[in-house]
Amino acid sequence: MGIDVTAERVIPLPCERVAAFAMDWRHDAEWTQGIRTAELTRQADGGGFGIGAEVTRTAYFLGKRIDYVLRVAAYEPPRLLDMVSVAGPMPMHVTYTFTPTPDGVTLARIRVQGDASGLYGLAAPFMARKVRSSLVKDLRDLERRLSGP
Known about the structure:
Layout: E1 2-11, H1 15-22, H2 28-31, E2 35-42, E3 54-61, E4 64-76, E5 80-87, E6 92-100, E7 106-115, H3 119-122, H4 124-147
Antiparallel strand pairs: 1-7, 2-3, 3-4, 4-5, 5-6, 6-7
């Protein structure tokens, strides 16, 4: 059984500002639920962060430490960051999109897809609810972080 969860939020800031912060792996632990550390462990072919780069994250989910590596599959700032897991407890696909609205604010969206087979399969419905709750909090915290002092 798979997990496919999306959360979105209108953030009253320009798209470029929201995306620049959210797409920078160095800020992951500041606004993403459960992430304790994030490290660029492989640069993109042209150097730095971009398609092919890999970010290793250490997170805690349901009280358990999870280490996983996400590889950048698509990177089109300030609109899209798409990543797939290449190491971790289950296959995962994470997509961040940022859409400017006519009134100058940003529609921020995060989609997480995962293959919750094996032991995770039994808990897939519960995991999907927890992931959705975390994504809603992530977007709230992203807005707070960017709107605060």
